[in-house]
Design a protein that fits this description.
The complex is a heterodimer of chains A (143) and B (138).
Chain A lengths: L1 H18 L5 H8 L8 H19 L23 H17 L3 H6 L6 H28 L1
Chain B lengths: L1 H26 L5 H7 L9 H19 L12 H17 L4 H10 L3 H24 L1
The chains are: A mainly alpha (143), B mainly alpha (138).
């Protein structure tokens, strides 16, 4: 059942990204470019998403002892603002500003047909694994 | 035309929230695309198949969007260098910073998590500065 729900949510999330035009890198870059013909519509996407998410989360989900089909909620446990958070978010911002593409829209665009999207996804996966290899290298050097 | 895209933004945003709330309500999972994707490779214990079906759902979603009349962009006209640098930095940054636009921007802020509010402000600001600098250079 969780598999089916995850599939359904993946499809609906992708539809949401497509309707809101988050899948269009040019639209995203027009939002990020505050000096040009600024396109505020992506603020509206986030605003409307949060207008629904915040009350439903706090009124319903927070009062639910456990998810319907699994044993526990798996929510992030970290609460402190640390350097990795600030550093990582900045790096992500730079990459997003360069390309206009973030992970969700990259995957939704996979069937769009452009080889550029495939290369983007491959490099993104490599990028995600860089910290692991850096750590392995560091621990080997420390031995 | 302008009004139409504003309406699309509102409806799209509501669908994103409804989708994320559904996943959380039934499975207890946060809709963070970078995290779900990265978790696919962490197969040391057992493969979590829900991650696969979620990602699969995202990939096949344009088929359903097309039925209701919404299409993907005709072409991706970013340069190869922007695609390459962007891909690497987005992958690295979302990993180190524990999330992307969906995980921090919607679910995290939606839970009123201070970490996510800070991260989202941070990546939107650095993205805007990057766009400005690139514009200035070219």
């Amino acid at each position: 059942m969780t598999l089916f729900i995850a599939l359904f949510c993946g499809i609906s999330f992708g539809i949401g990204l497509t309707i809101s035009q988050m899948v269009n890198p040019n639209k995203v870059l027009n939002f990020l470019d505050i000096t040009g013909n600024w396109d505020p519509s992506l603020v509206l996407v986030m605003f409307s998403a949060l207008t629904l998410f915040i009350p439903v989360y706090h009124k319903i989900i927070k009062n639910k002892p456990k998810p319907t089909f699994t044993n526990a909620f798996s929510l992030p446990s970290k609460i402190t603002i640390d350097y990795p958070l600030l550093f990582g978010a900045s790096i992500f911002g730079i990459g997003w500003g360069i390309s206009g593409i973030c992970p969700g829209p990259a995957l939704v665009n996979m069937t769009q047909g452009s080889p550029k999207i495939i290369v983007f996804i491959l490099l993104m996966l490599i990028g995600m694994n860089i910290p692991k290899y850096v750590n392995m290298l560091l621990s080997r050097l420390n031995k | 035309m302008e009004q139409l895209t504003l309406m699309n933004s509102v409806i799209g945003g509501l669908i994103l929230a409804a989708s994320a709330l559904t996943l959380l309500f039934f499975t207890g999972r946060i809709t963070g695309v970078s995290g779900i994707l990265h978790g696919l490779w962490q197969t040391t214990f057992s493969i979590e198949y829900w991650r696969i079906t979620f990602i699969l759902g995202l990939i096949i979603s344009p088929f359903f969007s097309a039925i209701i009349g919404f299409n993907l962009p005709d072409q991706i006209d970013m340069s190869w260098s922007a695609i390459s640098a962007g891909g690497l930095l987005v992958g690295l940054g979302t990993r180190v910073g524990s999330g992307c636009t969906s995980g921090h921007g919607i679910c995290g802020i939606g839970r009123l998590s201070l970490r996510s509010i800070v991260a989202t402000s941070m990546f939107i600001t650095t993205a805007m500065i990057t766009v400005l600098l690139l514009k200035f250079v070219s």
